[in-house]
Amino acid sequence: KNQVEQSPQSLIILEGKNCTLQCNYTVSPFSNLRWYKQDTGRGPVSLTIMTFSENTKSNGRYTATLDADTKQSSLHITASQLSDSASYICVVSDRGSTLGRLYFGRGTQLTVWP
Amino acid sequence: EADIYQTPRYLVIGTGKKITLECSQTMGHDKMYWYQQDPGMELHLIHYSYGVNSTEKGDLSSESTVSRIRTEHFPLTLESARPSHTSQYLCASSGPPFGGNTTSTDTQYFGPGTRLTVL
Q1: Cα B49 from Cα B71, distance rounded (Å)
Q2: What is the largest CA-CA distance in chain B?
Q3: A15 Cβ partners below 8 Å, 6+ apart?
Q4: pLDDT-derived band of residue B104, with 50, 70 and 90 as boundaries?
Q5: C-alpha span between B116 and B108 (Å, rounded)
Q6: Under an 8 A CB cutoff, do B104 and A42 touch?
Q7: Contact at 8 Å (CB) between B96 and B106?
Q8: Tens-place pLDDT, residues A29-84
Q9: Do A99 and B43 touch (CB under 8 A)?
Q10: Please, are residues A13 and A81 in contact by the beta-carbon 8 Å criterion?
């Protein structure tokens, strides 16, 4: 069964600190992996996307890594800000469908305190 | 900022009412989707569309129906709402960058969601 597991479920950090969120997946075949940020009461917004051949991708203070061999990804947030408080969702797409079928993790709820 | 809109943003209705959740996008995307999301849970695909007059059911069984008469519009209808339908409904669309070709890496752009509560 194709699955996407994220850890931790929730995380609280102080403003200015760094943190790393984890994503493990069993989706096969594999096309790409995305990290989305979802603010409370809003729709998810794409942060990064990585294909099989990419092992790191940055978007400002967000850096995602991908190890396609171990089927693991991480999202590192540097110098956290209050506005980083949100749910971060790992989404994996398989290669088996023209629809680009997506498998969603449950997200990590990040809270940044001042 | 993605040009995809949902109305209403919040809706509280009584059991048995018929409702339509609106979704529209101005990006010219062929593919559109409806997801259902409960608090702390993953998104579940309930409907999708490849283009005009094309609709398919998603992974999660849903009593809702959809239509795709125009490219930019993908409304979702519940004929008789029940408390079990209480949830957040997210609409999304995907397509290639302007002038480009569709690929498996096309990003899905999400609307702000409709928070539905059925009493």
Answers
A1: 10
A2: 46
A3: A80, A81, A82, A112, A113, A114
A4: low
A5: 22
A6: no
A7: yes
A8: 888 999 999 998 889 999 999 988 899 999 999 999 999 999 999 999 999 999 99
A9: no
A10: no
